[in-house]
């Protein structure tokens, strides 16, 4: 399992240790080295959250999954995302994961995902909305994101929606966090792919 939060690793270990020998890694880079060097793993649980370390951008969850899948195509990979969101599940599966489960999932869903990955089957967290559904952005957030996708500035978006620029900036920060996007361009790409905007 790969996660830089000790309590998350502890929780996952308590769910899985009665049926699996569990190895932990606090960094994606270290986990990739373990998979490449040792290679005798049946399942990897990879945290999908985007974060930065003190030395610059860390390898992303999707990049980690892609690299693990290339190294050991038979490895069952469970992507562990922050939310039960369709775009996160899609990104994980496209990178090579066979399963996706959100951090909000209970022990039973986590165990089902790991069992499915070990059996080379797929599993998507049941709370992930069906394809084509609108995500968990508010109507106002979708309006702002649509304007940004149309090439408008924060100033223009504020004027169009009769909001202050500061309010638009706050909504934009919340959009980035909700979509786990690195920047506005990434948020627009996710929103277009998931039909959150036109």
Number of helices: 9
Separation of termini? 37 Å
The number of E-state strands comes to 6
Shape: elongated
Q: What share of the residues lie within helices?
A: 40-55%
Please identify the structural class as seen in this structure.
alpha/beta
Q: Approximately how much beta-strand content do the residues carry?
A: 5-15%
Unreliable stretches, pLDDT < 50, 5 or more residues?
52-57
What string, H for helix and E for strand, traces the elements in order? HHEEEHEHEHEHHHH
Mean pLDDT: 88
As laid out across the biggest beta sheet, the strand order is 1-4-5-6
Characterize the biggest β-sheet: 4 strands, parallel
Radius of gyration: 18 Å
SSE arrangement:
Blueprint: H1 6-16, H2 28-37, E1 43-47, E2 52-53, E3 56-57, H3 61-71, E4 76-81, H4 86-95, E5 99-102, H5 107-118, E6 123-124, H6 139-149, H7 154-161, H8 165-179, H9 184-193
Parallel strand pairs: 1-4, 4-5, 5-6
Antiparallel strand pairs: 2-3
Short structural description:
This protein has 198 residues and is an alpha/beta fold. It has helices at 6-16, 28-37, 61-71, 86-95, 107-118, 139-149, 154-161, 165-179, 184-193; strands spanning 43-47, 52-53, 56-57, 76-81, 99-102, 123-124. The chain has a four-stranded parallel sheet. Strands 2-3 form a two-stranded antiparallel ribbon.
